Structure formats: C-alpha cells, structure tokens
Amino acid sequence: MNTRAMAWRGRAGARRAANGSVREGAARAGLTAQGVIYLLVGVLALRIAFGDGQRQADSGGAVAELVGKPFGAALLWALGIGLVGMALWRLTEALFGSADRNGRSARKRLLAAARCVFYTFVASSVLAFAVDRGNGSGSGSSDRRSRDLTARVMELPAGQWLVGLAGAVVVGIGVWGGVQAVRRKYHGQLKLGELGAGARRLVDVTGVGGGAARGLVFAAAGVFAVRAAVTYEPDRAKGMDDTLRSFADTPLGPWLLVGVSAGLVLFGVFSFALARWRRV
After folding, report:
1. pLDDT tens digits along 7-20
2. Three-state secondary structure along the chain?
3. Which residues, in sequence order, are CB contacts of 206 under 8 Å at separation 6+?
4. Of 80, 113, 199, 227, whose CB neighbour count within 10 A is largest?
5. Vertex 102, ends 98 and 105: CA angle to 5°?
6. What is the rounded CA–CA span in Å between residue 3 and residue 83?
7. What's the pLDDT tens digit per position in 25-73?
C-alpha cells in the first residue's frame, strides 16, 4: 500500500513538474512575442514621427513589417504561437493564480482573464495574417476596429454609457500601469537575485521608461473613447496607430511622438528582460 501511495505521489509530482515547465515555456515565449510587437510598433511610430507613415503603428503594422523580411512567414508563425503561449499563460493565472504577490486574489485573476482575452484576439489576428501570407485580409487596422466596435456598442441599450465606462477603465489602466512602472513595482515579479548590476540598470531604464510610455498611450486611447461616448461620435475613437499619431498634433509637435515611440521600444526590450528573469 505504501509503495503504491509513493508511486502515485511520484506520478503526481512529475505531472506538476511537467505542467510547470509547460506554463513557464508558454509564459517566456509569450513575453518574447510581446517584446517583438512593442519593439516593432515603437520603430514604426518613430518612422511616422520622422515623416515615413506608410505602415500602421499597431500590431497589424508590426506583423506586416515582418512579411517582407527573410523567413517572414516563419517569423509570423513563431510570433503567433508565442502570443498563443501568452494567452494560455494568462488563462492559467486566471484559473489557478499567479506567482505574484496576492496572485490568487480575485482582482489579479480578473486582470489575468482580461489579458487572456486580449492576447487571444491579438494571437488570432497574427495567425490569420500568417495564413493569408500577408495579403492584408487577415489583419485590419486597429483604428478601424476601434471605430467599428465603438459604433456597434453604441447601438446597444445604454451603449453610450458602456463606451464611456470602457474608456474610463482604459484611462485608469494606463495611469495605474504608468505609475506602477515609475514606482518600479515590477521588481516584485523578477528574480532580482539573478540580476547583476548592469542587468538591473537595464531592467530599470527599460521598465520605467517603457512602462510610462505604454501607460500614456493607453490613457490617451481611453480619453478618445470617452470623448467618442460624450459626443456620440464613434469615429472619434482611436486605435493605437491614430493614438500615437495624435501625439504629433500637440504643442510639442513630433518630439512628443518621438519620446513615446522610443518608450515603446524600451518596453519591447523590457519584455525580453521579463522573458528572461520574470518569476512564473
């Protein structure tokens, strides 16, 4: 009996170890894919700032950028599979909790579920683009998708309020994310003991600068959604591309867009650091 119990415990432990390895692999592949997306979006936005605005500065533009590169199709498939890994990792966090502090709390699980939905959508768009071999039918502009979704929601009962609430939530997420980055709250997610002095400086520069820039983009997109709701004009909603371009229309001109774009590049690098040193 004792022998059978020990064998059962051994098999259960092996299953847990295997599941842990799969989850860790999915997380690190997903964070790497996230880094590629933000790095490319940042580079595309920098091109817009300096007068070359042919590509959309969003996930669709990022994957379109890969198509023309050597082994572009393989890169697209790898990117899509990595994003599937990110969605699956967030799903496990929603179901079982995360390794973060208070990772089993309802708030953390709800946030993980929202991220799972988001990355499922992005992964499906990238994989559809890969299937269509970059002919454009598999991935639409984030600006058009935002306007279409806003218009559809506004047709619902209390749709105007729903759009306004969603926009306010996005503003809150952007502000919260930016503040958390500046306060270096990501330290709680990292294996700090494995970081040397140089690596820690790299993580802090990219984490603070990149997190603040990403938070600003989210907050601005949320403001546009709230404005669309208040004026009952769905066309005022903006995706990432139009949101980034709007920074060039401020009194600071294209230099604000340059700064935000550079910040998104930093966030891409920070995502690579997370893929290496994040606790999963």
Report:
1. 445 444 444 544 56
2. CHHHHHHHHHHHHHHHHHHHHHHHHHHHHHHHHHHHHHHHHHHHHHHHHCCCCCCCCCHHHHHHHHHCCCCHHHHHHHHHHHHHHHHHHHHHHHHHCCCCCCCCCHHHHHHHHHHHHHHHHHHHHHHHHHHCCCCCCCCCCHHHHHHHHHHHHHCCCCHHHHHHHHHHHHHHHHHHHHHHHHCCHHHHHECHHHCCHHHHHHHHHHHHHHHHHHHHHHHHHHHHHHHHHHHCCHHHCCCHHHHHHHHCCCCCCHHHHHHHHHHHHHHHHHHHHHHHHECC
3. 266, 267, 269, 270, 273
4. 80
5. 80
6. 43
7. 889 999 999 999 999 889 888 888 887 766 677 777 777 777 767 677 7
| pLDDT value for 261 | 92
Tokens 């989850």 belong to 23
> How many residues are given for the chain?
280
> How many degrees, rounded to 5, is the angle at CA 120 between CA 278 and CA 242?
95
